[in-house]
Write a structure and sequence with these properties.
This protein is α+β, with helices and mostly antiparallel strands. It has a domain at 3-60 and 75-84: IHF-like DNA-binding proteins (HU Protein, Chain A, Irregular). Helices cover 30% and strands 18% of the residues. The chain has 2 helices and 3 strands. It has helices spanning 3-14, 18-37, and strands at 42-44, 48-55, 77-84. Strands 1-2-3 form a 3-stranded antiparallel β-sheet, covered by helices on one side. Helix 1 packs across helix 2. The protein is elongated, with a radius of gyration of 22 Å.
């Protein structure tokens, strides 16, 4: 499933306009991306965990070596790691239930 198919599926399941679902998914993914980029973990029970994972900075050699200078050595790298939550563990029901709007007044 790609991003467009996800938006269409959520729009159909929630009966919300596609543009509203697209804006919500875009904002959600941007928030997850920003949180992980700041070094924090995002846990979505029943779905998975996004967490920062990085490689250590390369340490320059203690003796001069031919090749790139110390300023050319790449710094530590931060990447997002995703772990799927185990499907057999008990979690909240994932099926979407639209809110009951019958009790709302139309005023």
């Amino acid at each position: 499933m790609n991003r467009g198919q996800l938006i269409d599926a959520v729009a159909a399941a929630t009966e919300l306009p596609r543009t509203q679902v697209e804006a919500t998914i875009t904002a959600t993914l941007a928030q997850v991306r920003g949180t992980v980029a700041s070094g924090e973990k995002v846990q979505l029970p029943g779905f998975g965990t996004f967490e920062p994972r990085g490689s250590a900075a390369r340490v320059p050699p203690t003796t001069p070596q031919p090749g790139p200078s110390c300023s050319d050595i790449p710094p530590a790298d931060l990447q997002a790691a995703y772990y799927v939550h185990h499907p057999d563990r008990p979690t909240a029901e994932l099926a979407y239930e639209p809110p009951d709007t019958s009790a709302r007044s139309t005023n």
